[in-house]
Amino acid sequence: MIPLVVVGAAGRMGRAIAEAASGSPDVTLRACVDRAVPTGSEPGGPAWGTDLGAVARPGDVVIEFSSAEGAVAAARLCAERGLPLVSGTTALDPGQEAAVREAAARVPIVRAANFSLGVLALKQALDAVLGPLAGWDVEIIERHHRGKADAPSGTALDLARRAREARGWGEETLRHGRHGKGGPRNDAEIGMHALRGGTWIGDHTVVLAGRGEWIELRHVAQDRGAFAHGVLTAARFISSVAAPGFYTLNDVVRAAATTSTV
Ligand code: NAD
Question: What is the pLDDT of residues 13-47, one digit of tens each?
């Protein structure tokens, strides 16, 4: 049984992970951490606290979906205590990303901007078509719920990075939305369109447009269980990895495929 401590447990992802864990016999939600502890926690349920340092124990796997500061604090605490970490908060600035990577020199950390296994497949499909469709225009459209703090999503930026790198373009080629008389589209340009509204969980479309034809590659997350499933797969992987290091969802899936546990 793998004991989990979830940081950001009162949030949307924290609750989805708790639900997925309750249906998985090989993991147990041992403790919940959130800076806003909800009132009326269930008796006999996991312990709740505001301070990861106060609740974490040796042998725990820490899962973090909170905020950029929460991600850095959890990574530092895990490095100090020798605890493996699964980290999913998006929109860390370069200094914060560097702080998490620094912690990965001391403990194993899986970090991904999107824990959906379907999104991983979308990225692989995009990589496969970018070569043959070298001259085609690329536009990325993403939709998320009205409460999402960052735009474009980390996943949309990762999809754009793949397209940019395949074409040898820099970050300045991203064009966020269009309005006014901007003239015709540049060849070296990737249009980024972030829709916000309602309760969309996560929806990413990459449009590749040629002359008289186009392709759309689209992934839709119908509920947060899509991410939670990948998170628990990552938690199982990281609990069995002894070596400190920075691991991706690709590493998780590669290892899980050999044991048919994806
Ligand atoms: P949310 O606002 O619903 O929940 C975040 C929770 O974290 C809140 O309850 C908040 O009180 C708590 N929190 C914030 N900072 C904290 C800290 N320093 N210490 C303790 N608790 C803290 O947000 P959400 O929708 O659950 O998303 C959380 C993060 O995960 C966002 O960055 C989001 O973009 C990201 N996300 C990632 C994936 C993925 O697959 N990687 C999927 C969905 C969301």
Answer: 999 999 999 999 999 999 999 999 888 767 678 99
**Do 122 and 177 fall into the same domain?**
yes
Question: How far apart are the C-alpha atoms of 141 and 196, rounded to whole Å?
Answer: 11
Could you give the CA distance from residue 119 to residue 254 in angstroms, rounded to a whole number? 15
65 C-alpha to center of ligand 1: Å?
4
Can you tell me which atom of ligand 1 is nearest the CA of 36? 11
Residues 6+ apart with CB under 8 A from 255: 237
CB distance 89 to ligand 1 below 6 Å: yes
Average pLDDT over residues 191-211: 97
Give the residue numbers marked as catalytic. Answer: 144, 148
- Provide the whole-model pTM: 0.89
Give me the CATH number covering residue 131: 3.30.360.10
CA of 114 to the centre of ligand 1 (A): 13
Question: The domain that contains 26 carries what CATH number?
Answer: 3.40.50.720
